[in-house]
Design brief:
Order of helices and strands: HHHHHHHHHH
Strand content: under 5%
Mean pLDDT: 83
Shape: flat
Distance between the termini: 36 Å
Largest sheet: none
């Protein structure tokens, strides 16, 4: 792991990451080239096109890495070649992995509409996992905590001379305000699909992954 990190840092210093980013933005897939490390993979999933990860076989079998990716990508519904398509097929059948992956989708800052949740569930066949997760009241509390978060407003730098800068600032602030309002509405809609507190006793024994065969 340390050797991979050093190799990747050297790769970045030589401008390799800039070239890779340029290729991804132009729609071309990149290959590991001896750098199949997590840092490289995290950079790839920041983009909307993940098809490069089809070439990263080791990473696509790394459950911890994949669950982290699920929590940081752009909205999966908006992605091209979303990386889940390339996940190792055996791992896709693992019950624990599936639950944790779906949790990461719910907690992804870029996922805040019920439509987006349903897109992932329906596209990849996660109906059973989703039905069970919506009864998990402890996870419901984790998801509910997202309501206290928001997209940050821009810093105010208007110096009183260029009125155009003030207009740009106000426009951006208004767009973020609307985005935060829509985000809250979406999160509340998702939250409404969770089980009510009255069934808390049914889940008091903890989370059991042996919920389906």
């Amino acid at each position: 792991m340390i050797e991979e990190k050093i190799r990747f840092d050297n790769f970045v210093e030589r401008g390799g990451l800039k070239r890779a980013n340029k290729n991804i933005l132009s729609g071309r897939a990149i290959k590991p080239c001896g750098r199949e490390c997590e840092e490289y993979g995290y950079k790839i999933v920041e983009f909307f096109d993940h098809k490069s990860l089809e070439n990263f076989k080791n990473l696509m079998d790394n459950s911890e890495f994949l669950i982290k990716c699920a929590s940081i990508t752009p909205n999966p519904k908006d992605c091209i070649n979303y990386f889940y398509y390339f996940v190792n097929e055996n791992l896709k059948r693992n019950k624990h992995f599936r639950i944790e992956f779906l949790k990461a989708i719910y907690l992804n800052d870029n996922v805040y509409t019920l439509e987006s949740i349903n897109w992932f569930v329906d596209t990849f066949g996660y109906q059973k996992e989703n039905n069970y997760l919506l009864k998990d009241l402890e996870f419901k509390k984790r998801f509910e905590a997202r309501l206290s978060e928001h997209f940050e407003y821009p810093q105010y730098h208007f110096d009183g001379h260029d009125r155009r800068k003030l207009k740009v600032y106000k426009d951006l602030k208004n767009r973020i305000k609307v985005l935060n309002q829509n985000r809250e509405i979406g999160l509340l809609e998702i939250l409404s699909t969770f089980a009510k507190e009255k069934i808390e006793d049914e889940s008091s024994d903890g989370f059991n992954y042996d919920w389906f065969v």
